[in-house]
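Quick illustration, no need to memorize.
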Amino acid sequence: MDNASKALVIAGAILLAVMLVSFVVMVYNTATGTAENSLGSISALGVSAYNAQFEQSFGRNRTKSQVSSLISKVIANNGDDNNPDISIRMSGDSTGSDNLTTIAGYKKSIDTSSNTARFTVSGAYGEDGTLAAIVIE
């Protein structure tokens, strides 16, 4: 009977140890999931802030100085290797370009347009939500 009692105590200790380890793993997984969700929210906020610097120029009836300023922002953005490139498509251009020389040509075209010229500016977004292209009509 003495051996049976010791066996039950050992079995109980093993059961408690397994339950404790399971609890620790569960708490760790919950904490990790919360941290990952927080990082996803920060990333979404980062995408929103990134897009906002360009989106403020979107809309109808934009002046040539507003569009020229937007193109300058795109040139600065595309020159930075840490940022995704944004292509620009002008009306009549079916493909658009993210090439800095081509975009500079678009800017020159806008800058030499009439002071009364008005433009409609819109955007297209990539799968990750970042601005991928700007359409100027």
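Helices lie at 2-55, 64-79, 100-111.
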